Amino acid sequence: MKVILKRNRVLHCWAIFDLFYIIRFGWLNISQGRIPLVDDILSFSEIYPQQGVYPLILFSFSLLFNVSVIFSAVMFLKKWKYANWIVYVQTPFRLFFMIPSVSILPWMFKTMSIKVGAMFLAAVFLSEIIKLGTFYLTREKSS
Fold first, then answer.
1. What is the 3 state secondary structure string of 4-52?
2. Domain, as residue range, for 50
3. Cα separation values, 68 from 32, 33, 82, 85, 94, Å
4. In this structure, are residues 63 and 41 in contact, taking their beta carbons and an 8 Å threshold?
């Protein structure tokens, strides 16, 4: 089967989605008078003593994921040879935190006033299947 997907186009497509996520994340924070990530860390440090270790683990993974999206966008734009590995590492976190790779989905669901959780769950899973599939089909085969 001949693959019609070009690796460069796939990388640029997913970079655009990551950049949209970063811009949206920044905009939502700034519009509330918050500094992205910095205010999250400061807010969490205030409530951490009452919450315990489990929320610290979740917060740490969430923070790590958000930073990794910045790196993945850069790696996709630079056409990094091993970009597929960052996709494979991010996927479980995207599924756990319900953050689709097709980052326009939350915006579309909100704009269209869709509030059905099962539909969003299915959209997130479909989004990740599509992303993994495009990277699998365009992977560089070793000789």
1. CCCHHHHHHHHHHHHHHHHHHHHHHHHHCCCCCCHHHHHHHHHHHHHHC
2. 7-137
3. 23, 24, 14, 12, 11
4. yes
* pLDDT bracket for residue 139 (50, 70, 90): confident
Distance CA 105, CA 44 (A): 27
Burial level of 60, CB count in 10 A (0-12/13-18/19+)?
A: exposed
Q: Which structure tokens are listed for 86?
A: 């960052």
Write the CA distances from 86 to 11, 90, 141, integer angstroms.
12, 6, 17
Query: Within 13 A of 2's CA, how many CA atoms are on the CB side?
Result: 1
Output 129 or 110, whichever has higher pLDDT: 129
Whether residue 16 lies inside any domain: the answer is yes
Task: Establish if 88 belongs to a structural domain.
Answer: yes
DSSP at 1: -
Q: Which residue has the tokens 């917060």?
A: 59
Mean pLDDT of 98-118: 89
Total count of domains within the chain: 1
User: In this structure, is residue 2 part of a structural domain?
Assistant: no
